[in-house]
Every structure is written in structure tokens, then in C-alpha cells.
Amino acid sequence: MEQERFSPIAPEALENAVKLIGSDWMLLTVKDAKQGRVNAMTASWGCLGVLWNKPVCVCFVRPQRHTFGLLEENERFSVAFLPESHRDALKLCGRRSGRDCDKPAEAGLTVMEMDGVPVIAEARLVLVCRKLYADDLKKEGFLDESLLSNYSAEDYHRMYVCAIESAYLAN
User: Fold this and answer.
1) Which residues contact 106 (CB under 8 A, 6 or more apart)?
2) SS3 string of 146-163?
3) CB–CB of 142/154 below 8 Å?
4) Which of 12, 36, 114, 132 is such that its CA lies 20 to 30 A from the CA of 140?
5) Is 53 left (phi over 0), alpha (psi -120 to 50) or beta?
6) Strand 26-32 to strand 6-9: parallel, antiparallel, or no bridges (unpaired)?
7) E strands present in 10-157
């Protein structure tokens, strides 16, 4: 059984979030019901922490990304952290659009389902997330205007604050 690849872990026992997201990168994985497949998008901007007395994962997605529309359509999704041996798969899932291809398949990744959401079987850590709050970053909200250089097209990210419903480590 595929789910035997993972064991539950308490969100409080997660590794260093700065390394996980900023260095290792995360893979947001969500169903695309219209195309009948799963999409995965690499992200290196995000947060893990506590908000509203809940363990949360905060993800940032630009509006032009295919994943943006899928996150808008789905309440739940997964976040995967892959071993370094899968860095090329992460790069592909960050460069290619799920509008044009089946990214997990092209990246050589296996999709399975856990807790009702798609997850990447090769992950070393999986978070099952449920959206709690979403809002767009706004130009007038930037206190350090040098950060606006990240938005030459003024395509500000949407921020998703998500409850970590469950977390799993690979066996």
C-alpha cells in the first residue's frame, strides 16, 4: 500500500522552516479536476508557523501561474519536500506550466492520494493543508520599497494561510 511509505508526525516536530522552504524548496500539489490530472508547482517563498492557535503553512502564488486557479478551486492540497536527489524534478515543476503538460509525470514523480488530497510519493515530508485565509499582496503594503523590484510586472502574489491538517515523514 502506498500510504505505508509515510508515518504521521506532529507539526511541532517539523524541521527548520527556513531551510525547508528557502533551500530545499516545496512542491504545492493540487487536483486539476477539469483536466483530470494533478498539478505540482515548485515554490521557495513561504512560511511555517502558528497562527490562530493552529499550525500553518503560508504559500505565495502569482496570479498568472496555473496553480493559482487550481488553489482557488480547491480547499485542500498538499505540500511536499523532496530529497536532494529530486532537485531536477523540482526545477522542472518550477519552470513548466501545468497548462501545457502533466508536470509530475514529466518530472518522473508518482502521485498518490492521502487524506483525500494528491501527494508526491517520493517526498521525504508531506503536509496536508486546508486553506483558512487568502489575500493579495498590495503595492501600498510594502514598507521596504526595494522589495518591489520582485514585481516589475506588478503581478503581486496571493498569500494563502493554510492549516496543517496532517504531516507525514517518509519511512
Assistant:
1) 92, 96
2) HHHHHHCCCCCCEEEEEE
3) no
4) 132
5) left
6) unpaired
7) 26-32, 37-43, 46-51, 54-61, 76-81, 111-114, 117-120, 125-136
Q: State how far the Cα of 115 lies from the Cα of 78, in Å rounded to an integer.
A: 10
Phi, psi of 59 (to 5 degrees): -120, 150
Identity of the residue numbered 75: E
User: What is the predicted pLDDT for the residue at 78?
Assistant: 98
| The predicted structure's pLDDT at residue 40 | 97
Assign 15 a pLDDT band (cuts: 50, 70, 90).
Answer: confident
Reply yes or no on whether the pLDDT at 139 is more than 70: yes
Taking 80 as the threshold, does the pLDDT of residue 3 lie above it? no
Q: Tell me what the pLDDT averaged over the chain comes to.
A: 95
What confidence score (pLDDT) does residue 1 get? 45
